[in-house]
Specification:
Distance between the termini: 41 Å
Number of helices: 7
Number of strands: 0
Length: 126
Amino acid sequence: MSERFDKGMKIRRSVLGDAHVDRAEAAKTAFDEPFQSFITEGAWGTVWASDKLTKRERSMITLALLAALGQWDEVAMHVRASANTGASPEDLREAMMHVAVYAGVPAANHALKIIKKTYGEMGVEI
């Protein structure tokens, strides 16, 4: 694998956690292996690896974009990841305020429901 892949896998594990990445790797097949390599190198090894933003900032941006696009499963996953990025519940609430203004109240409202549910599952009181 490439240096970018190795760096991406390290960051992916630091953000999403070993258990999540291990499940994804175990589920990988020859069919989706090129896609998994692409996201590990591109998303994690390039975008998340840049030192221009903190993991906390990237977490907030990612959640806002996912909410705006209605990617609900990914919202829950990245809420769980926020425990590893330093993004607080208050940070996520503020990100959803931006979603409400720029992408619509329904998207932000639904994302807030997922955020609350996910934090509840994590044992985080909000």
